[in-house]
Amino acid sequence: MESETVVETARRLASALKPGDLDHTLAQITAAAVEVLPEVEACSITILHADGSLETAAPTDEKLWVLDRAQYAFREGPCYAAAVDSVHITCPHIETDERFPRYAQVAREAGVRAQAGLRLYDGPASRGALNLYSETPGAFADLELLGPLFAHQSAVAINYAHEIRELKEAVRTRGAIGQAVGVVMERYKLNDQRAFAFLTRLSQHRNIKLRRIAEEIVADVTSNR
């Protein structure tokens, strides 16, 4: 593949992926895959959670719900393999691919002739893979170069979205704890340090996160007004 093509693909991808929250970012990634990557006609993201459960996110076509679920049920197929086992996997002829005998029939009935799976990220609580679908037999011949490029830029966007979510959560948590400290100070005539220590002991005694304790206290006050 010519270097100009790679550069142009990178430019288009960078233009398509704008900063945003996680759900919006995932939807941008799957839409960009259909727009930017050659021969991709539909796309979804598989999320492997820490408990082993699998979830589909941001599909660009309704039929992908069925196709992805079939791969999870059979524990075979490109999207399952990319999320669980392989970093990248390409299947130009899915219906004759001996690695996925059960899923191949489901793909054929849905009109899918080629698939690919690209690992997007590996996190402490989840792992994500990009699922690419095509109705063209032999598709994804150029994916060897463009696939890792797309996965890298998508991972950057996802990491940024995670940071935004964590920052918002930190702000929300701090606000709730601050409100709860105020409630305890007023209720038990304590200073702020002793009120915070009270909340901490309660959190440890009940084995519940401090944020949850704070939210319960604030909710109780609000409901009794």
Global structural class: alpha+beta
Strand content bin:
15-25%
Ends distance:
68 Å
Q: How big is the Rg?
A: 23 Å
The biggest sheet amounts to: 5 strands, antiparallel
> Averaged pLDDT, please?
82
Based on Cα principal axes, name the global outline: elongated
Total number of helical segments?
8
Order of helices and strands: HHEEHHEHEEHHH
Level of helix content? 55-70%
Uncertain segments: none
The beta-strand count equals 5
| Biggest sheet: strand arrangement | 2-1-5-4-3
What report would you give on this structure?
There is one protein chain. The protein is of the alpha+beta class and 225 residues long. The protein has helices spanning 3-16, 22-36, 63-74, 78-84, 101-109, 143-188, 192-206, 210-223, and strands spanning 42-49, 54-57, 88-91, 114-122, 126-134. A five-stranded antiparallel beta sheet has the order 2-1-5-4-3, with helices on both faces. α6 (143-188) crosses α7 (192-206), α6 (143-188) packs across α8 and α7 (192-206) crosses α8 (210-223). It is elongated.
Q: Which features characterize this protein?
A:
single chain; alpha+beta; 8 helices; elongated
Quick summary:
With 225 residues, the protein is of the alpha+beta class. It has helices at 3-16, 22-36, 63-74, 78-84, 101-109, 143-188, 192-206, 210-223; strands spanning 42-49, 54-57, 88-91, 114-122, 126-134. A hairpin with a 4-residue loop joins strand 1 and strand 2.
Would you spell out the secondary-structure blueprint of this structure?
Layout: H1 3-16, H2 22-36, E1 42-49, E2 54-57, H3 63-74, H4 78-84, E3 88-91, H5 101-109, E4 114-122, E5 126-134, H6 143-188, H7 192-206, H8 210-223
Antiparallel strand pairs: 1-2, 1-5, 3-4, 4-5
